[in-house]
Amino acid sequence: MQAIQKQTTATGLTYLPNVPAPKITQPDEVLIRVKAAGICGTDVDIYRSDPQLMNRMKDILPVITGHEFSGIVEDIGSGVKGLKVGDYVSAEMHIICGVCHNCRTGNGQWCLNTVIRGITGDGIFADYVVLPASAVVPLPPEIPEEVGAYLDAVGNAVHTVRSADMVGKDVAILGAGPMGIMATSLCRLMGARRIYVTDVQESLLKAAKNEGADGVFNVGDAKLREEFLAVCKSDPRKRGVDVVLELSGHATAYRDAFAAVRMGGQISLLGLPKGEIGVNFSQDVVFKGVTIRGIIGRKIFTTWVEMLALLQGPFLETAKRVVTHKFALKDFEQGFKVKLAGQGLKIVLYPNGL
Q1: Is residue 96 within 8 Å of residue 111, measured between CB atoms?
Q2: pTM given for the model
Q3: 176 CB contacts (<8 Å, ≥6 apart)?
Q4: Side-chain half-sphere of 343: how many Cα atoms within 13 Å?
Q5: What's the whole-number mean pLDDT along residues 190-210?
Q6: In DSSP terms, which residues pair with 225 in a beta bridge?
Q7: C-alpha distances in angstroms, 117 versus 32, 34, 225?
Q8: Which domains does the chain possess?
Q9: pLDDT at 275 over 90
Q10: Which of 21, 84, 173, 190 has the fewest CB atoms within 10 Å, i.e. the most exposed one?
């Protein structure tokens, strides 16, 4: 089969036209033919050889990358129930142990022994993947394969937005990439009063406006950044927004999060900053009574249930619009070139071509 590997810690990925296809070796495993696969921001960091990721991956390379996909069940192990050949599926690619404290208390998203396929185990930039049946999620037929191809990211957005009660709230969304665009639509669907979105790219801010943002701000401009903070504090009864969703991972956005939130508000952090960021805990957290939530992955499998339900409603149209580029798997370099240039939103690769 064809596959894309991270072979060394050097920059880039390698396309291999003919590698052995994985086989079922355990009774609880499922063989899936990949139909479509999304390029995630983490995949871009792997391509760039981000030092933190390379430190995690260096001892297990080479690894087939990619962790967002939709596909068709090709074969099942002798002990698999609830799935059959021909089923249209995706999967939770955070493979959890099921026995640690967090798993046993219903918090598998915090599993102490998580294997993330495509990072610390072989992923789905390939024709086939073998996964434990417990991770495989059947998909409704009305979800198109290009949307099914990035449910990992959709789940991140749903998990982040669902981390706070949005009804009647004023919300600041920092970062208007795919997560920010989806979060804007979700906050509107879930009853937010006002939604303010920041980024440094006008095209992304335009997309956020189209998805229901009340105000968009190019915070690359110092004056517009000050305008954003002033708007967040414009309600004299609050002097800050109720909820901040940080989705960019930029240090300046992290600082803006603490400046924009009201006393007693909540900050949910999904973006991954590089290095350390200073926080004045006395002034910005303790005296403000701020709740901070770190968001990792998806609640297993609560977020999947919520996400699939949302995708059977008007949110599906947003999810379709988020897909802006499509390429054959063998042309993955073109897709990564688009992402590295900061263009478009979600890019989907097709092993069988377009």
Answers
A1: yes
A2: 0.95
A3: 184, 197, 198, 199, 201, 204, 205, 207, 208, 216
A4: 9
A5: 97
A6: none
A7: 14, 14, 38
A8: 3-152+298-350 (3.90.180.10), 164-294 (3.40.50.720)
A9: no
A10: 84
